[in-house]
Amino acid sequence: MTITNLLVNLSKIMVNHPGPKRKYSSRSKLLHKLQNSSRFVGGEALSKELEISRVAVWKIIQQLKDQGYKIESEKKGYRLIQENQENLDLESIPFAGEIHHYSQVSSTMEASNQFKEKLLNGLLIIADQQSQGRDRSSNPWQSPNGGLYLSYRKKSNLPQYFGSLLCPIMTGALVGWLRERQIPASLKWPNEIYLDNKKLGGLLLGYQCMGDKITRYTLGIGLHVNDPLSNPDQEISLKEYQSEEQSLKELVQEISPLFHEILDPMERGTVPAIPKRNLMLQG
Description:
This protein is of the alpha+beta class. 31% of the residues lie in helices and 24% in strands.
């Protein structure tokens, strides 16, 4: 099946094969509770609902504050200051693995390194901004609010030579997805996404091997969506191209299941399809 056909049938696949029921961490449940309440939420209520101690609730609150979330703390409980940002709503994301959302990280790939074993169905790290984003050449990738920054981490048993294919295959899948959205993006081999001859985004890959097998890998995605561009002569955003604000929530919902649909068959022995030439940047 080609990438284009796969993307066309993605909604049907998701309905018929929803995948394993996702387990949410206490951190994710607490954050979701705060995001969906405009009032203060009591610590005792959080403790009972999450089935953790009041001390554990307090520790999670401190972690969220350290990660950039603005949370008011008073005797009556805790309240998240939303700052008019779109609520990502982790429970609405069609992804079988574990998801963590951060206000700010050094990079989503770096943040994924703290999760060593929770990779059975994959791990998704999403951030509102990155302080130390990098491109393939280790040059700084400006990552302010408004862009899409996420990483997918997975245990693996792939042959080591697949390491050179993961990035172009997933980049090609994203280009195909953008074209389904009527955005004429192109793949600049092996990992960059271009639009109107300007850079829209790109992917990074990190992996570990044992013998001739890849034991785990991480794919990071950076995409200019609504963020201000530091170099508008060479970069472009979806907001600029489509002349309107884009929904990051909607984009994350559409991209997240692609990791399972595109990459999981490789773990079952399916030979990956190399992106077709008509997806490539010409000239």
